[in-house]
Write a structure and sequence with these properties.
By secondary structure, this protein is mainly α. It has 5 helices and 2 strands, in the order αβαααβα. A two-stranded parallel ribbon has the order 1-2.
Length: 99
């Protein structure tokens, strides 16, 4: 559901020249209440692989469908950081022609 929301927002363009992808994975209140025996982090991270697949497919930069800022909660730094660095490298290759 979050990926569909982000894609929908991205399709509408970039107000003010920025597109901020808020990767807030925290589950809905009703879902949390119905799973009180589980940690909030465990409930939230169930969607993490799907979301990171979406992040890896994104393009950074000034284009209409590009991302500028990606922020989130409960981020696993071992994958999230490397995926964001890869997006930055993609931007560098585009701007400098380096492959």
């Amino acid at each position: 559901m979050l990926v569909e929301y982000l894609e929908n927002k991205k399709q509408r363009g970039r107000p003010g020249g920025f597109f901020v992808a808020g990767l807030n994975l925290t589950a809905e209140t009703d879902y949390i209440i119905s799973h009180l025996s589980e940690s909030l982090k465990k409930l939230t991270l169930q969607s993490y692989p799907y979301l990171m697949h979406w992040v890896q497919k994104q393009s950074p930069g000034p284009g209409k469908q590009c991302l500028n800022i990606i922020a989130g909660d409960f981020i696993r730094s071992e994958h999230f950081v490397s995926d964001i660095i890869a997006l930055n490298k993609k931007l560098l290759r585009t701007n400098t022609g380096i492959h």
